[in-house]
Design brief:
With 87 residues, the protein is mainly β. The chain contains 1 helix and 7 strands; from the N terminus they run H-E-E-E-E-E-E-E. The protein has a domain at 27-82. It is elongated and about 50 Å long. This is Pilus assembly protein PilP.
Length: 87
C-alpha cells in the first residue's frame, strides 16, 4: 500500500474550483476531439457524467451539434446552446 503525505493547510481549498452552476440542469464539462469527431463530457442532473457525440440522446433531448466551446441540445427541432460555466 502506498504511503501518503498529509496536505499542508489550505491546499485542498486552493485546488478546488467552486461553481454557481445550476446542478439541476445539464452542465458542459468539456469538449474533446477534432471537427467532425467531437465528443462532449456532460454532468447530468443526477450527478452522473456522460460522454456524448452528435446524435446521442441526453434524457429527452438530442445532441444536435458540438462546436469548439459549446453543444446544442434540443428536441422537436428546437435547440439551446450549452456552454462551459464561467466561460
Amino acid at each position: 500500500m502506498a504511503q501518503t503525505t498529509p496536505l499542508p493547510p489550505g491546499v485542498a481549498q486552493e485546488a478546488t474550483e467552486h461553481t454557481r452552476a445550476n446542478l439541476d440542469r445539464v452542465i458542459l464539462l468539456g469538449i474533446v476531439g477534432r471537427e467532425g469527431a467531437r465528443r462532449a463530457l456532460l454532468r447530468l442532473p443526477g450527478g452522473r457524467v456522460a460522454r456524448v457525440s452528435k446524435g446521442d440522446r441526453v434524457g429527452r433531448q438530442t445532441v444536435y451539434a458540438i462546436d469548439d466551446t459549446r453543444i446544442a441540445l434540443g428536441q422537436n427541432g428546437r435547440a439551446r446552446w450549452v456552454s462551459i460555466p464561467g466561460r
